[in-house]
Amino acid sequence: MLTKIARACYDVNMDENNITEQPRRRSDGEQTHQTILDRAVKLASIEGVNQITLGRLAQATGVSKSGVYAHFKSKERLQMEIIEAAGEIYEREVIEPGLQAPEGLPRLIKLYESFLSYVEREIFPGGCFFAGLISEFDAQSGPVHEAVIAGHREWEGLVVSLIQDAQQRGEIDSGVEPAFLVFQLDAVKDHANFLYTLYRDPAWIERGRQAISRIVTQVSAT
After folding, report:
1. Which of 88, 135, 146, 155 could, after both became Cys, cross-link 1 (CB 3.0–4.6 A)?
2. Neighbours of 122 (CB within 10 A)
3. Per-residue CA distances from 139 to 77, 152, 162, 208 (Å)
């Protein structure tokens, strides 16, 4: 899902702002750049992408504003790199582990378990980065809003395909509407993310697991 959000944000804004690719940084500069970016991603998960400016990041990292500018050149580039980096983390922590499970129903279950685990392990201190991004940009217009829509549709398409595969294998009732099942499962995972982030109580993650298990049991073709 989220590499598409990141790539779309990056590509659209590159076109709109006519920003050329930066020359390759030296290895020592790359390490500093990554350290600053890691901090920016964590901060954005708490405060929101729109709040992360060059000045705010300089304040948070102790790097001079001119030093931060030397790495990112503009607020727009900084924000795009934040989203892209967050997308890579989500792919690594949620999508890839989920797709490593055996095909069919186990893969669907593992995908949602990977999400709950990623929230519980607090990969982002502000909860799921992309749940926050949707909340931040859902009522706005512009390229990030459109990219968030594209990313959500990609996620939904992935889950629908897993459900359909499980139906073809006789593991999920053929009468179940895949899009509605995605809606149910996502409602649980998103609510578990919200309440865990609010209370920092792992009981909410466990309730999420139990709710997903009950939903899956109800639609299983057994």
Report:
1. 155
2. 14
3. 22, 15, 30, 27
